Amino acid sequence: MAKKERAALICRVSTAQQIELGLESQVACLKEKANNDGYEVPDDLIFQEQISGLDANKDIRQSLKDLMNAVGNHKVDVVYTYELTRISRDPYNLVERVKWFSVRKIPMYIYDAELWTLDRKTKEEIEEL
Length: 129
Hints:
- The chain is α/β, with parallel strands linked by helices.
- The chain has helices at residues 16-21, 23-36, 62-72, 91-103; strands at 7-13, 46-50, 78-81, 108-110, 115-116.
- It is built from four helices and five strands, in the order βααβαβαββ.
- The longest helix has 14 residues, at 23-36.
- The chain is globular.
């Protein structure tokens, strides 16, 4: 039997309302979507933080650093996030970080927009984007 591809999840909550709903709801939602898409989601590939996306003192959040390290170590085939602001709220940083994953042929699924950054099978850019 072929080994399932691995999905990583990147989750963050920052506002009081999001904290009340909790990280668990984002994780559960993304994990279900990834499983339905045929991916396994190992516990060590669930990256989460409870921190403001506007924290100007941080160049890059620890959860994102850990995800990027896992990608660099070839542990990740695709990434799921609830919304793009979980990656960065700064538009310049967001574009740079999405490019970073794309260059490494790691498709990202953005749940709230229901879109992939790359085709999951070919790992090429999706022309509609």
